[in-house]
Structure formats: structure tokens, C-alpha cells
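User: Hello, can you help with two protein structures?

Assistant: Certainly.
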Amino acid sequence: MTADADVNASAAPASDGLVMGKDGMAALVDVLIRRGFTVVGPTVRDGAIVLAELRSAGELPYGWGVELEAGRYRLRERSDGAAFAHAAGPQAWKPFLHPPRVREWSADRSPDGLVLTADRSAPPRYAFLGVRPCDLRAIAVQDRVLTGGTYRDADYAGRRSGALLIVVECTEPGATCFCVSMGTGPAAGPGYDLVMTEVVDDAGHRFWIRGGSTEGAGILAELPARPADADTCGTARDGVAAAADRMGRTMPETDLRELMATTLDAPRWDDVAGRCLTCGNCTMVCPTCFCTTTEDVTDLTGDHAERWRLWDSCFDLDFSQLHGGPVRASPRSRYRQWMTHKLGTWYDQFGSSGCVGCGRCIVWCPVGIDITEEAAALHDWTRSEEAEPP
């Protein structure tokens, strides 16, 4: 995106939303809480910017940024006091919509027989404050996976149906970000209730905020804000456009689905298998991975039992366990399954890529395996194979 041609005009059209200061951000959190939302957003905790319940806007990470690299994450102080000038942290929004542990039912033995009770407790009504465009797309991907098919996940659907999404566009990507390659950012796509762009310059610290739904517009009407001016809109758009040119990583410019399908026997899989610990960190931090397993537990008397649904990972040996052993016993086969599914066969199942370019799998890999580097190596191998004479 680029700035509008009338960037020097004194005011922007009313349809361009509103501009609010830090007092407006404080009011936004108060309005959300007053409307009955559990507000979740970024905050500084334990040496990282994490997602947690917010009681006030003062808990936002004003003045904090991050330094990212493969296998490395560090907080750094900022001099401008920006609240959202940081890239994706260790959490996506997935744990709130698709929790790591969900009790599905419990059973109790009674004199009258076995009594089964389904766990259908009402979830909180979340307001997600500070959703990045890549994570907005990830939520849309999980919507398709968990509610778009024949087998609808009732727990996810219940949590998702009441969630309010407040997106913040990116103006400062991290060194491991590659959302432009995946078409997911840094500008916001559809699906938000409110969208903001943070601007900090000589004119002050402010937020350009626009509505994307009826409920979002109603919240917007309660905030202390003024009509958007063209200078703020132009600066915000320029910041987002500049972020698109400063991505820390890129995917090779090729059909990734086709690349995954034609490189199953590439020697590069042996190379990455020699480094991969098969720990599953990449699947845990990925905002779209959705696999689960079930676990049945009982108390010591045997009179009470519960069934729990737990996150699972295709890097786990038991994930593909059949009679006689696992289908994918080697690290090579398990890493290949994860990457080819994420970038390739996800299209066959769900009609889109399973990767949104957030870069979390790169940052939180203990040995710094980089999915963009692996895709580039596979792409180089295909070109070298094509160049060899018959």
C-alpha cells in the first residue's frame, strides 16, 4: 500500500476512520471490559512479549521491541514508546481458541450405573487486542480447518463465535518475518472487527483506527477520537508499505505446492534431519497447526474417569503409530511430513497454504532450522537437477 494522492490535504474522508491517542487506547480497553469481554493482548512477562489477559491499557508493552533470529529471541527497549512495534511473540492466539488441553467428558460410577457428563462449560467472550495480519489469516485458516468441514469442532466454534478481533497492522517486521511471501501482511486482510495502525512521529503518538463490523463500529463510537486527518493516514499507510519492503525472510518465488510434491526424494531432507531434534516446538508455536490426541485418565478408585483432548505433533513417534510401529519412524520422514503438509498438501485438504509467514517456527527452533532456507535449498536442488544434461 502507498499513501493517498491527497496526503497533503487538511483532512481525510470520514470513511477513513478515526485517530486517537494513548487515552483512546485506555478507553478502548475499558469499553471492552464494560461490554463483558475478556481482553487479551500483548504484555511483557518473563523476558518476552506474551499474550495474556489485560486489566488496563497500561499493561501493553509500551517502549518494548524484540530482536529475532533463528533460534533467538530477545527483548529490547525502544525510545519511541510504541506499544505494537514488535513482531510475533512465542504465542499465537491459538491457545485461546484451540486450547492445549480440553476435557471432553467425565464419567462416574454410581449405584444406578455409569453417569457420563459432557464438558460444555461456556467459554469466555474474548476480545483479542493487537492481532497481527499474519495471525488474522491464521485464525481464518483454523476457522476453515476446525469449523468448515464435515466434522465441526464444537469447542473451537463456541470460543470463536464470540471473539472480537482487533488487528494492528505491522510497521516494523522482525528478522524472521516473511508474511509478504505468503500474502498475509503487513496490511490487514478481511475478517477484523477493528483495525489500527500505530503512528509515532513529531506530531505525537496516535492510532489510526477503523471499523470492520457492526460491533466494531459501535465500539469505535464510544472512544475519545477525532476524524482521521490525511497526514496521519498517509504516514500510517507509508509505514505499512515500508514494512513490506523490510521483511527479514522470503520464500523462493515459485509454486511451493509443486515444489513440495517434486522434491520428496531430495537429499536436503537428510541434511535437515541431521539437525532436527524432532522436539515439536515448531508445531506448538505455529498458529495453524491443529492436530490433537486423546487421553483417558481415572482416579485411584476407578470410580471416576475423564477424557481429555491434548495438542499433538507430527514430530511425535506415537503420532503415526499403527500396529507394528510408527509409519514415520525417522526424523527425515517426520520433518518432511510437517513441511510438505504445511506448504503443499494443506492446499489439497483446505484450499490454502498452512503457513502464514509469522516466522515463529524459525525463532523457537532450538537449533535454528529455517523453513524459508529449507524451501530455498529445495528450489535450488530442482533447478540444478533441471540443468544437468540427460
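That covers the first. Now for the second protein you mentioned:
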Amino acid sequence: MKILLPIHLDGGNRGCEAITLSTTKLLNIPKEQIIALSNNTQLDTRLGLNKYVTLQASPKATLQFKIKRKLLKILTQDELKATSYTYRHTYLPFLKQASENDIMLSTGGDMMCYGNNQVIYTNEMMFSKGVKTILWGCSIGKENLTPEKIKTLQHFSKIYTRESLTTEVLTNLGLKNVATFPDPAFILNPEVCQLPNVFTKDVIGINLSNYVVGDYNLDTNFGNEIKKLIEYILQETKLNILLIPHVLWKGQDDRIITNYIVDHYKNNSRINALNSDSYNYCQLRYIISQCKYFIGARTHAVISAYSTCTPAIALGYSIKSKGIAKDLNLPKELIVDSKNYTKDELLTSFKYLLNSGEEIRKHLQNTIPEYIKQLNNVASWLFK
């Protein structure tokens, strides 16, 4: 039996690295039996994933392929057909190795929160071949549902949701194949590494993305809220600020807005940026664990804070952030919806974090161990 992970993508998103690494540890099977399709095997090897999973390189988009795709789009005037051609080129060679005894895990966490995509293509391909498929550690809101998604949700053999709000959405659809466990990344341990010099004082770690801010700079409505937060930290506290990029992919690279902020405040030595490319996910988790507070846009950066009992605010914009915080019984002040917020809400939440930090830390210390224990049942649920 093989476990196939066609939507691992690659560790340029440290959240993808975290999901794949934690999944291998949860399933505890030889790396020869768990196979991940990687867009960047060189990076994934540098991050150490090759020790736990067999990496297969995704087909490159050759010039011939690009020309065919462009012609198909021009001749048919159909973006869907061009996208389907891309998916066949990318995923079909990988999926052909599957037999009826194998299992496909559709990873990616929030992939179903966006438009119709490769989750549907890969699941329908395996469903047509009679291969068991599992939607693994997912989040999806009611507003994200489409007829195509609902159909493919019915075709998964099992669905593992990572928070109870998604479970509610799916059970309201009449789905019976749903179980809820924490995100698999909660089981990962921090990997001790050398800390940046910014840790000579207490540090607040901040992770930002273009998704929450609305651009790669702070010239947006929510960007203005970030500015007010930073200026309050610099003027009213003694905290050093460490900006921690978590996704390094082209098109959504956290380093762009990080570098913008560092340049904007270039005369202030209390603001620093972490060179995240030099660290794997578990090392980033260690750095986050050493922060006194954390504010994060990326879900798996916030999970690192939660799992190490670091008081944190999630800059959530979808069901995943709200659902995980709800299941951890965290107060509503620790979630700021970057798409639907009131003026100064972020600053108010930060003041709450300052005033209640130790109480939040103790709550996490009491909650997280039992919460993580729920993951002990994932492997038996999967193989049953």
C-alpha cells in the first residue's frame, strides 16, 4: 500500500512543509510508502523532508507545454479547458502509479477555501479509478462552496476537518464521512537553533501576508491598522519587533511586505526581519516559541505560537482561524478578521494581549496537551 500526496506543492510555503512532515510522523510508515509530488525537490531536500517522505518531482512547464496551453486558451476561449490541461500535465503522471490498494491524501489545509482547483481534479481522477481518497486536515466555509466542490466532497472516502466550524458546514451538507482532529502540524516539536540578536530584549513576532494586508505595502485600510500597531509598540512598549515571513512563494511572498516595513522604519533598530529562507518549519517554530507575543497572518505560523503556548493574535480572514481559536477556547479578542474589522480593533486586541498575556499562556498550557492528544487517533481512523 502507498500513501500519495499529490498536493504537497513544496516547502516554499512552510505550512505545506509542516503538513507533510507532521502527516508522516502521524502515520508512522516507511518513507518508501508515502510519496509526495513536489514542485521543488531541491528545496524540500534542504528542509529535510526527504528523510520522511519519498519526493517525486512535478513535471516542468516546458516551452512546448506553455505554447500548447496558450493556444488552447486562445482557440477555445475557455480558461477551464486550459486549466484542466495544466492539471493533466501536472498530476496525471503522478496519479497513474496508484492502485486500488493505495490511498490518496488531499492535503493543503485551506485549498477548498479558494476557487475550484486541483483538489477537485485529483479527487475525481482517483474516484473514477476506485482509489480511496481522504481530504486531509481541511477547512472550508459555507461561502466557499460551489456545486463542483459539493460533488467532490461526496466522492471523498473520508474527510478530516481540522476545526469544528468546518465540521458543522460539512455535516449540514449531509456528509456522513467526516471526522474532526486538530491540524496535524500541532504535533511537531520546535527545533532549537541560533536566535537572532533581536532577542537581547523581549520580542513580539509578527507575520504578515499580502492576503491580510491587501497589498505588498501598508497603503491599504488594514495596512493603516498595522502602522498604528507598530507605532504603538515602538512608542508605548519596550518590545523589539521581529518580522517572520512564512510563505516564500512567488506571487504571495511574505518577504516583500516584510522588507517594505523594515525599509519604512529603517531608522529604528527595534524592527528586524528574519531571514526565514535559512530555517525549516520546526526551527521557525522554535523562534516563534521564544517570542513573548506573536501576531500572525499565516495559519501554520499561528499554530506554532499556539502549540508552544505563546500568546498570539490571529489575523484571520476565513473559517480556519476562527475555528481553531474556537476549539482552543480562546477569547474573541485574539482573532482580528482583516477583511471585516472595525477601526482600531487590531490595536485594541494588542492591548488585550499585553494585559492578559500570562493568563492566555496559562490557558494554552492547560489546553494544548489534551488538544494534541486527539491526534493519537488519526492513524487508526485513517487505516480503519
